[in-house]
Amino acid sequence: MKPFSARTLLIALALSVSALAQMPMPKPSAELKKLDYFVGNWTMDADAKPGLMGPGGKMSLKEKNEWMDGGFFVIVHSRFSSEKMGSGTGISLMGYNPEDKTYFYDEYNSMGEAARSTGTNEGDTWTWMGEQKMGPQVMKGRFIMKILSPTAYNFKYEISTDGATWNLVMEGKATKS
């Protein structure tokens, strides 16, 4: 058998590139349009309860949320501060996985935490579920957002060791400016 020549490989590469150029560009799914709600500048004020997640107290968060080029992901830039736990920054991505038919929220912050949540939307309520390791124990987290208007929602964050009994960690309100 005769080995491929450089010329044969170049022709094959050119044909592959030509075929890819004729394929239509992917378009964002209709489900992604629901994330439009979150685009903009948001301020969140919350009351954190003392417990496993820290000493509690008043917290505030500012977000600047924008669509990434292409319209498939919302980029979330956040700054947070707490009376008792200090302040920091974070970056997150929100999107939709059409294969799993779920929304996702991937977060990374300046405290070294990385978290992934999957979300569902039913009417005016978004529910985001995730897991977080605390020492040897895995805690389930549930972040529920209740849309009040085009520029406001209430939220609460709860944790559970078994997925059945939930403990309130934080609750508050978000407003869009």
Oligomer: single chain
Percent of sequence in beta strands: over 45%
Strand adjacency order, main sheet: 1-2-3-4-5-6-7-8-9-10
Low-confidence stretches: none
| CATH architecture name | Beta Barrel
CATH topology: Lipocalin
How many DSSP helices? 1
Number of strands: 10
Number of domains: 1
Alpha-carbon Rg, integer: 21 Å
- Name the CATH homologous superfamily: Calycin beta-barrel core domain
Shape: elongated
The N- to C-terminal Cα distance equals: 69 Å
**Overall pLDDT metric:** 90
Report the sheet with the most strands, covering strand number, pairing sense and barrel closure. Answer: 10 strands, antiparallel, barrel
Alpha-beta classification: mainly beta
Structural write-up:
With 177 residues, the chain is mostly beta strands. The chain has a single domain, classed as Beta Barrel (Lipocalin), CATH 2.40.128. The protein has 1 helix and 10 strands, in the order αββββββββββ. A 10-stranded antiparallel barrel has the order 1-2-3-4-5-6-7-8-9-10. Strand 3 and strand 4 form a beta hairpin. The mean pLDDT is 90.
